[in-house]
Request: fold
Amino acid sequence: MNILDEIIAHKQKEVEERKSLYPVKLLEKSIFFSSPSVSLRKYIQRPDKSGVIAEIKRKSPSKGVLNKNVSIERTSIGYMQAGASALSILTDNKFFGGSNDDLMTARKFNFCPILRKDFMIDEYQVIEAKSIGADAILLIAAALEVKMAEQLATFAHSLGLEVLLEVHDEDELKRTSGVDADLVGVNNRSLKTFEVSVDVSKRLAPMIPAGKVKVSESGLSDPAVIGELRKSGYEGFLIGETFMRHGRPEEAAMEFIKQLLNT
Reply:
């Protein structure tokens, strides 16, 4: 069993438990549930922004603990002041040290698109995403059967949420071509081996359907590389570890985006 299989197996148990603790009717009473969403797609394409989706995660299976005591309030506000286009908040606890409260805190202090970064396998999690203030959800092709990916994307849109579909290779991109995603993210890190190569984004760029906002994810630590990816048509750049391994992630983001805007 690889790490992705382990995560999904745990997530299935977790979702069933949360359904009993927090019924859908309760989630629908959230103050966020009827609030209009902010478009991740539009913010990424705004000319006055950097295209950076700045991520908050305390740890990861591949890198261990990154920033255990990060301040969600300070970091999320700082990311946006640094010129990020959007926020990505990890809500998985067991493997990434996040929580739904992290996203709700970020929502409280920021008017910007927030991506709920988690392993989505059930419509319940989509309702949950809306109830905690997310504007978009992540669907990971490697973790989902095609029909389920299509179903979750359609359901997300019915709630006013946007969808970032994440792929790792040509096969995943081809088999999920029918998924109604607003953005397509190419993860440069293999979920099976954890090897990282930005060449994955460059290779897949021409295969991503026209009209989809292209997002490159993982292994983005050099502003010059983002300049290269832009030439391949990428507009969004999801960056977490590069910022989170610093004591003050928002300061790392400020310096990175400053360099990015000068390249």
Summary: The first strand starts at residue 52 and ends at 56.
